[in-house]
Amino acid sequence: MRRNLYFLCLLLVIPILALGVHKHYISLTKVDFIKEKKVIQVTMKFFIDDIELALENKHGQAMELTTKDENKMADKFLEGYIRQKFKVWVNEEEKAYAYLGKEYENNEVFFYLEIEKISDIKTIEIQNSMLFEEFEEQQNYIKLNIENVQKTFILLKANNKDKLKL
């Protein structure tokens, strides 16, 4: 009886421990079209340690994100990284966006972007290759909310771009 109980505990504990060891590499990006304001608002959410690793590997400097010793160039490096890895096309035309800033919350960082002067969307294409150079398993989820149409893309290293036709 006791041996069976021990075996049952092992069967339950081992999978739980295995889940704790494996880290998931996921980001979430929300893309909302506010037709009345003629803007696309983009909110990106990443784990701080993942973004920090990518910046440190790219620039060869400690970033110390969220600390009093945060690298003075961190905002510039972050914006440059996002501009290199994240692209938006509306109606087959690549659109420039304003980088509005970042915000830390617990172990996550939020980035805010905005594209102005968008009166109508027939197609929207998103490319997000952030963190693919660091993590083979990285998945970048894109949740679109365009004129009451909701769609989710899952972008992978092998397929870092997708398009919604309205």
Would you give an account of this structure?
With 166 residues, the protein is of the alpha+beta class. It contains three helices and ten strands; from the N terminus they run H-E-E-H-H-E-E-E-E-E-E-E-E. The chain has helices at 2-21, 48-59, 74-85; strands at 26-34, 39-47, 86-90, 93-94, 98-105, 108-116, 123-128, 139-146, 149-155, 161-165. The chain is globular and about 45 Å long. Mean pLDDT is 89; it is low at 4-11 and 16-22.
Beta-strand segment tally: 10
- Given the helix and strand composition, which structural class is it? alpha+beta
Described by strand count, sense and barrel closure, the largest sheet is: 6 strands, mixed
Compute the number of helices: 3
What is the approximate shape?
globular
Terminal residue distance:
63 Å
Helices and strands, in order, run as HEEHHEEEEEEEE
Our Rg estimate from Cα atoms comes to 20 Å
Our estimate of the beta-strand percent is 35-45%
